[in-house]
Specification:
Elements: E1 2-9, E2 12-19, H1 21-55, E3 80-84, H2 90-98, H3 104-121, H4 126-130, E4 134-143, E5 153-160, H5 165-179, E6 185-189, E7 192-199, E8 207-214, E9 218-222, H6 225-234, H7 246-255, E10 260-264, H8 270-273, E11 289-299, E12 302-311, H9 315-325, H10 356-364, E13 372-377, H11 384-394, H12 402-409, E14 413-419, E15 422-428, H13 434-443, E16 446-452, E17 458-468, E18 480-492, E19 495-499, H14 502-510, H15 516-524, E20 532-536, H16 538-547, H17 549-558, E21 566-576, E22 580-589
Antiparallel strand pairs: 1-2, 3-4, 3-10, 4-5, 5-9, 6-7, 7-8, 8-9, 10-11, 11-12, 12-22, 13-14, 13-20, 14-15, 15-19, 16-17, 17-18, 18-19, 20-21, 21-22
Length: 590
């Protein structure tokens, strides 16, 4: 198509025509260049974003679990196998990114001290020896020379992020220790070079250490040549190492996500885990846990732990036999301390799951402050050993005997709450019936009575007559008697509410704030049918963690208290098919 113009000048008509095609042909290459540059910039931005995400500490929240390559060197019989599936610096960066602005430095320093202390326990200086080359997987195993005995050896697997980092580390590691007078032994085992000697951090007692370099990018350190040779042996036989264990591989696939992976066989680790050991007065409370696979991942300002636990098949029969044949044993005075985590009931203890609708009906009537909140199902049919441990978890020292009696007789859903005014229980109106509890309450010296409230409704109360020494001049008249309230019960529609004090029941009736923090913590577990759901506030969570041996060990490694930022703890436990349990635990930080 042509365009043109015409004009009249000096009596002449001027006409000029021109073709528009060349201009268009010039415009098209320009637009093509602009489009290509735009696509290139978008591609570069997407690539840069992907690289930043891969390096971002926030990526820890969705890291997919895989079977660690270092699990090939861990025996299946190991008491503990722990694998960090990230660069050791990433948890420090994550803590800094998620903590409140004013606490970011303190949070990062706390995690860094914990990391450095863990490596220092093995005689390694992380900032000076490992930080420059350590890669995205670190493994630790605790092994015992005799099955079922406490671990007496350890194995550390360190992956290098580059080809020369592992080799340079071993050269500096043994060079430093040889200059300190350590006698080194260099030999070959299964075609691999093994160096053994004694080493430690400056100022620490030297301990036996053996090392081996695998494929130029994996360093194995062990607490002695025997432990290292065992690791090299099992790596060649799939039936003996953890990486080829079908149950472990299946558990890793089911757990799905995590930054820290742990395989546990508690035999020999009872004291370390804070569990009652077999034998003696704790025999009836022995944890029937055969093994467990645990995944830990950060989620915002929470640490989410998920575990698949395998129970010992004969544990239920043993518990029932002991209940029938063994006389009651005296209570251990040290048993008054509450465990950090509840021991799980056996599979047969949970014949039914919690009905979410019934649980919602119970929580709908709860009002007032609640530091600890729990939902239970069919607690009457839990074995005696688990019921006693559950009572130690839920009840406070001054709670009295009534909550335990109610939980031991309740076959339906039950809500338990602990607040400033004391404990509260909620059950269906006819489960359990007070008449069924009376024989047991009579044995405890509790007297029942009925009170009329101002609104015309009635309350059933249980009191106890206590004797105590008089003070001052009244001491001559002998012991003084006083009446104390053990608990009260009132009906509301189709629910029964039990309270430690009349003030607790009155506060609930008058209404008030709903304990939303505790309810949100239970909902975050995403186990609405779990027969045991429990959430605790800051004070209770910190107190329980301080009594847990694992937490005390972590505190000692960090060299400072770690519970200052804890603002909640929640736990859910449900049965699995066969002899197994599914556990979820959330630890919240403010």
């Amino acid at each position: 198509m042509s365009t043109g113009w015409c004009s009249v000048q000096d009596g002449r008509i001027l006409l000029r025509l021109h073709d528009g095609l060349p201009g268009r042909m010039k415009a098209r290459p320009f637009l093509a260049v602009v489009l290509a540059v735009t696509l290139l910039l978008l591609g570069l931005a997407a690539g840069a974003g992907w690289l930043l995400w891969q390096r971002s500490p926030l990526q820890l929240q969705r890291r997919a679990l895989v079977v660690p390559s270092s699990a090939r060197f861990v025996p299946r019989t190991a008491a503990l196998g722990l694998f960090l599936l990230s660069d050791p610096q990433q948890p420090v960066d994550y803590a800094r990114a998620q903590a409140p602005i004013r606490q970011r430095r303190q949070a990062a320093e706390a995690v860094a001290r914990l990391r450095d202390g863990a490596f220092a326990a093995a005689g390694l200086d992380y900032p000076g020896e490992l930080a420059s080359w350590l890669g995205a997987e670190t493994g630790l195993a605790l092994v015992a020379s005799q099955p079922g005995q406490p671990p007496d050896g350890w194995l550390l697997a360190l992956h290098s992020r580059d080809g020369d980092g592992a080799r340079r580390f071993l050269q500096r590691f043994w060079q430093t220790r040889s200059l300190a007078g350590t006698d080194l032994q260099v030999s070959s085992y299964r075609g691999m070079g093994v160096i053994s000697g004694r080493g430690a951090l400056l100022g620490s007692q030297p301990v036996p250490i053996a090392t081996a370099l695998i494929d130029d990018d994996l360093v194995l350190l062990a607490s002695g040549r025997g432990v290292l040779e065992q690791a090299l042996d099992v790596s060649q036989i799939g039936e003996l190492n953890l990486a080829a264990d079908p149950s472990f591989r299946q558990a890793v696939q089911r757990l799905g996500q995590g930054t820290l992976l742990l395989q546990l066989r508690p035999a020999g680790l009872e004291s370390w885990l804070g569990l009652p050991a077999a034998g003696g007065a704790a025999r009836r409370s022995t944890l029937p846990l055969q093994s467990g696979t645990v995944a830990l991942r950060p989620s915002g300002r929470r640490l989410a732990l998920e575990a698949l636990l395998a129970l010992t098949p004969e544990s239920q029969d043993q518990t029932q036999f002991q209940q029938r044949s063994e006389p009651p044993e005296p209570e251990d005075p040290s048993a008054s301390a509450e465990p950090a985590l509840p021991a799980p009931p056996t599979q047969a203890a949970w014949s039914s799951r919690l009905d979410p609708a019934l649980a919602a009906a119970l929580t709908a009537g709860l009002r007032g402050s609640s530091d600890s909140l729990a939902l239970l199902q069919d607690s009457a049919h839990w074995p005696e050993s688990w019921a006693s441990l559950l009572a130690r978890l839920l009840q406070q020292p001054d709670a009295g005997p009534l909550p335990g009696v109610v939980m031991a007789a309740d076959a339906g859903p039950l809500l338990w709450s602990q607040g400033p005014q004391g404990w509260l229980l909620a059950t269906p109106a006819d489960q359990p019936e007070p008449a069924a509890l009376q024989p047991g309450l009579d044995e405890l010296g509790l007297v029942t009575a009925t009170l009329q409230r101002a609104d015309g409704a009635s309350q059933q109360v249980w009191t106890r007559l206590d004797a105590h020494e008089a003070a001052g001049r009244q001491r001559r008249s002998g012991p003084q008697l006083s009446v104390s309230l053990a608990g009260a019960r009132e009906l509301e529609a189709d629910q029964a509410w039990w309270g430690q004090t009349l003030a607790a029941l009155e506060q609930r009736r008058q209404g008030g704030a709903v304990p939303r923090d505790r309810l949100r913590a239970l909902a975050a577990l995403e186990l609405p049918e779990a027969p045991l759901q429990w959430a605790s506030g800051p004070e209770s969570a910190r107190a329980r963690l301080r009594r847990w041996p694992v937490w005390r060990l972590l505190t000692s490694l960090a060299g400072q208290p770690l519970d200052g930022g804890v603002d909640g703890l929640a736990l859910g436990l449900e049965p699995e098919s066969g002899d197994g349990l599914h556990l979820r635990l959330d630890l919240g930080f403010g």
